[in-house]
Write a structure and sequence with these properties.
- The chain is α/β, with parallel strands linked by helices.
- It has one domain (7-123).
- It contains four helices and five strands; from the N terminus they run αβαβαβαββ.
- It has helices spanning 7-12, 43-48, 65-80, 88-100; strands at 34-38, 58-61, 82-87, 103-109, 114-123.
- It has a five-stranded mixed beta sheet with strand order 2-1-3-5-4, with helices on one face.
- The two termini are 21 Å apart.
């Protein structure tokens, strides 16, 4: 079940980092989580969906997400946690990769084909 989120609600709860609107409460204690941004999404589109992109922790996702995950992104996410803003196809792949590595992944649909995924907010059971 997807929680209904309106644009007005997201804009109203934006914090200094801008990530609080789409991240679950577990990320509230983290100052600046790693932000994974789909290569197909620019900062203006992210802002239109209520996410202010902080350049300090921004990492662009490669077209070959599986290779990037296996080359070290998965280990970094497991250690630090991350918030991803991705299209539906990358959301599907990213959630599957996280599940393989027993990393918790919480998804929210922000727009027609836009998703946020909080990764590594706790230990997944299973």
């Amino acid at each position: 079940m997807i929680d209904p989120i309106t644009r007005r609600t997201m804009i109203g709860v934006l914090g200094a980092s801008g990530l609080a609107a789409v991240a679950p409460p577990a990320f509230a204690a983290v100052r600046s989580p790693l932000l994974l941004l789909d290569a197909d999404i620019d900062e203006r589109e992210a802002a239109r969906n209520g996410v202010i992109v902080s350049q300090s922790q921004l990492m662009r996702l490669d077209p070959d997400l599986v290779r990037q995950w296996r080359d070290g992104l998965g280990a970094r996410v497991a250690g630090e946690g991350a918030l991803a803003l991705v299209r539906w196809d990358k959301a599907f792949i990213l959630a599957g990769l996280a599940r393989e590595d027993r990393i918790e992944a919480q998804q929210r649909r922000l727009g027609r084909s836009l998703f946020s995924i909080a990764l590594g907010t706790g230990t997944a059971s299973g």
